Amino acid sequence: MRNSTLSCLTVLFLLLPQLSQAAGLAQVVDYGDPNIHRVWRQLAALERGESKDVLRIMQFGDSHTGGDYFTHAFRDRMQQRFGNAGIGWITPGYVKNQRSAQVLMKMAGNWKTRIARANPENFPVGGVANLPDPGAYMEIQPKFPVNGPLRVSIWSRRSSDATTGGWRIVMPDGEQRELAAPLSQDWQVSYVYGAGNEQNSFFLRADEAPAELGGIVIDTLAPGVTVDALGVVGAMQRVILRWQPEALRDQLRWRKPDLLILSYGTNEAFDAKPDFEAYYSDLQTSVRNLRAAAPQAAILLIGAPNSARKTGPGEQVGCRYKIPAALRNVQTIQKQIAIEEKLLYWDWEKAMGGACSIQRYAAANPPLAGQDLIHFTEDGYERSGADFYESFIHMYQRGRKGR
């Protein structure tokens, strides 16, 4: 890391404890993102009813994203204001301790799940892949009505030279569709058009010698907003570097996201042997890879939220419990990368109320955080997602006025 960068990090590290004491609405800050004004124009056109386009938002993160509570609080408000363009991109199958706020997944037969946090192989965007046995199937049951025309896109790849099978989809209106088998071991997309029917399920069934599943995308053919939540419990930010570079390029070019949100840092804060120079380098590389794969997209970095530990090493900052020893450094590096790479930035800890806020959240009635002082309750995620939405909309209102 350059000496000048280290100097900036040192200054920010000294200022963070003072800045985090200022409770209230933490504004989304624009450090010069070249694409955000395009987002404001798109949203304004949708709000006026003058656009038939879809504004696509993708959030990558750890368990705070993998639970889809925070993201759904943001998603629900965005879709109410600007239009609902569908469920969007969901994890390809059930993953333990994760959920979707939009669909319930039920899986029958044998599935071999691979997760990027522990196994650096050929991963798609999101870092989860599922290989079924022949005849295995998945039911995708929407939690909200999905009506009207829609498109279902399936990302898959040949897991071996013996892969010959495609996918069979039963749409909510009862129509059955066949998808051709993938042609190679690179991730590729197939899609079908159909119609929704209230809350009837989608069924995805594997043929003989099935392909590996790497992504499911359900879009309605209507203008509005989608918010894709692709999180992995326990993930650190470097998980993005385990996604196959060709998949990152091809999948993001296909999806054409307008806004990418990165929400990591909690697991880095609890890392027993942190390497801050490696973290800085990995975060910078991830941002640049995403920028290259989706050059039209604005990028927003969410700072790690406040957390604490009841036992073990940590930093005493005047709270009952210590904060993780690496938390301040992680937050400092995140903000520094946002400045240097010209991103948008939202200070989640500041929005919570500062240094001891996770402990106040846990003591609230009803509780807003769990007793692990890391994760939030459903009410807590709802509050944080709503705070993020209000901060984002505040900046949108300023941006559409040219301020």
TrEMBL record:
Residues 1-22 form the signal peptide. The keyword Disulfide bond does not apply. It comes from the Bacteria. Gene3D superfamilies: 2.60.120.1360, SGNH hydrolase. GO terms for molecular function: hydrolase activity. Residues 86-191 form the Peptidoglycan O-acetylesterase N-terminal domain. Transmembrane segments: none annotated. The keyword Hydrolase applies. Keywords: Hydrolase, Signal. PANTHER family: SGNH HYDROLASE-TYPE ESTERASE DOMAIN-CONTAINING PROTEIN (PTHR30383:SF29), THIOESTERASE 1/PROTEASE 1/LYSOPHOSPHOLIPASE L1 (PTHR30383). This is SGNH/GDSL hydrolase family protein. It comes from Undibacterium curvum.
